[in-house]
User: Fold this.
Amino acid sequence: MSKRIIIFGAGGHAKTVVDTVEKAGIYEIAGLLDQRLSAGEQVYGCTVLGSDDWLASHAGTIDGAIVAIGDNWTRGLVVQGLKRKFPDLPFATAIHPSAQIARGARIGAGSVVMAGAVVNSDAIIGEHGILYPGTSVDHDSRIGSFVSFAPRCATGGNVTIGDYTAVAIGAVLIHGRTIGEHSVIGAGATVVSDVPPHSVAYGTPARVVRPRAAGERYL
Ligand SMILES: CC(=O)SCCNC(=O)CCNC(=O)[C@H](O)C(C)(C)COP(=O)(O)OP(=O)(O)OC[C@H]1O[C@@H](n2cnc3c(N)ncnc32)[C@H](O)[C@@H]1OP(=O)(O)O
Assistant:
């Protein structure tokens, strides 16, 4: 019998996670948990089961969870809350069958790698990361936890990205650069220099345009 997981969240990002999990074919989706919706509602063919209370009474029947909330900071808060309430609940990883994970590459628990994404040789993606379709993270890169890549981002080799940083759609980072934690690299940016933590940077070449507090909105 396949392992059963629940997905936290039922919005647009959750739909992409549902699709990735279904295509990967490793886990059965027991349902979605989202306190904004009523139990019994259907989202993308999955049943909304309720909120955390449902998990408290069904924990023994569930093999894992994925938090499918696109905003990195909010996803982090939900993951931390779950770890406190359900310390034995493992986080599942979903990798679309058309994604390519090279030799030596590692994908952290709770991370989702979508269609056509590439994680090249010995690159490491931390926990609860998101690689939207067509993103490519190249060899030996070190990507922190709660980091997101929107569609079609590309890094060269040996790039380092700190926790909670968001790389927006179509951004390109040349090899060997370091992006600090809690930063946002804007849509279409070409990063040729290091970007400090807590910064918003965009443009070609990318420049830091303003500081950024942890949790500030970017979507
Ligand atoms: C599946 C999915 O949907 S995944 C999500 C996909 N979406 C994304 O990845 C987009 C995320 N958002 C971005 O990348 C944005 O560029 C941000 C958040 C980095 C910047 O947004 P803000 O700082 O709020 O910029 P704001 O909209 O206020 O614009 C300020 C100025 O900067 C310009 N600007 C904003 N973003 C960019 C950019 N990426 N590159 C160049 N210029 C930009 C604006 O045109 C504006 O210029 P103006 O003052 O001359 O009119």
